[in-house]
Amino acid sequence: MNKLFARFFLKSLLIFSPIFFLGGCLELFTTVTPLTGINVYDAYQISKDERGIYSITKDKFIKTKIQTKILASSGLSNLNVDVESFYGDVYLIGVVPDDEHKTKLVKLAKNTDGVSKIYTYIRFPGDGGECESNLAIMLKLKNSFFKDSIISGTSVRVSVVQCNVVFTGIITDIEQEKHAIWYAKHIDGVRDVYSFLKVMKE
């Protein structure tokens, strides 16, 4: 128990310190949005993340740099775009006004140090309309993950865009992805499910 707490504390210190240094309270602000909802178990995930401390910290720096650029960009908002980074691969997920702003978003991510590849799940306001169930879907899904012993120890991230569920992160077995998709498809209000999950063998 003491070793687990020490590991959790060290990871928390290394992860959250650079976030506040680079982006102030940006990380706390962007995780409570109509798009993504509240990251209920993200603190728990820190101690379970498959990546090492160095990789986690590096990815957090990349994520925060991109979020800071979005904050300073006209027409783009961290309220509508989720940014995730795993081993330098960046995922841009959310809603932007039009194709011009999508290009702008991808460009600012490409021009960020440390970014290897960019993956997008970007939709426009007219693609699916508003979804009042985004937050409810998010909370139900994360609650299911927390209770599932197969998924709870993984670094699966969840975004909900116009009632569509999008997974990003690192898993150690394809069964974890199957469980995640099953839960998402069995939640009322979910329109579609898309997975960027990557398997990394232990």
Automatic annotation (TrEMBL):
Signal peptide: none annotated. The chain crosses the membrane at residues 12-32. InterPro entries: BON_dom (IPR007055), Lipoprotein_DolP (IPR051686), Transpt-assoc_nodulatn_dom_bac (IPR014004). The keyword Phosphoprotein does not apply. Residues 58-126, 133-201 form the BON domain. Pfam families: BON. The keyword Iron does not apply. Keywords: Membrane, Transmembrane, Transmembrane helix. This is BON domain-containing protein.
